[in-house]
Design a protein that fits this description.
52% of the residues lie in helices and 20% in strands. With 183 residues, it is α+β, with helices and mostly antiparallel strands. The protein is globular and about 50 Å long. The model has no long low-confidence stretch (mean pLDDT 91).
């Protein structure tokens, strides 16, 4: 039994490290952000001091809405001005996610928080939330899109298996077109 587990772990590790940094760059260039975010998590130890790798890692996780995984690269982005700027950007989004989650789960007032603006959708929702620019219906917060009236956003907390998750659903003309899940 132990031998089988060891073999499976060995195979997993070899598959994880079968990718090179050039392979990751190609996937990133081809906008395979979910794949890049996952692979970078497996390759982090090998490239944790490479700022290009760390930026690809964090940006891919952001673009694939896997923002909790940005923690590892954020911590290591400190050597250059650009790296610190990127770390602050990624940290802002991660903080906004955590504060929204805290506010929704525990009914905490976060209207006093003022953070830098980013183009990430959760940042836009955070900004509208703290300003009170939403409609509350059935314990869900509805937000309008300033640029496209056909698009609306619904922010809610849903519990499954004793775990509360924050859902951000995007609607276009009343139909769901995207669901993002955070915790």
């Amino acid at each position: 039994m132990i031998k089988k587990i060891f073999i499976l772990c060995f195979i997993f590790i070899n598959i994880s490290f079968a990718y090179t940094l050039n392979d990751i760059k190609k996937l990133y260039t081809n906008k395979k952000y979910t794949r890049v975010c996952s692979l970078c998590g497996n390759m982090y130890v090998a490239f944790k001091n490479d700022e290009n790798f760390l930026n690809m890692f964090a940006d891919s996780c952001l673009k694939s809405d896997m923002i909790s995984k940005m923690v590892l690269p954020i911590v290591k982005l400190y050597k250059t001005k650009q790296a610190r700027e990127n770390a602050a950007y990624f940290s802002t989004i991660l903080y906004e996610k955590k504060m929204l989650y805290y506010a929704l789960c525990d009914n905490i007032d976060i209207s006093y928080i003022n953070l830098p603006k980013t183009n990430y959708i959760l940042s836009k929702i955070f900004d509208k939330f703290v300003k009170g620019e939403y409609d509350l219906k059935d314990s869900s917060y509805w937000f309008s899109n300033d640029k496209n009236v056909a698009i609306k956003y619904k922010l809610s907390i849903e519990g499954r298996n004793h775990i509360k998750k924050m859902y951000l659903r995007t609607y276009k003309n009343g139909k769901i077109i995207k669901v993002r899940v955070y915790w």
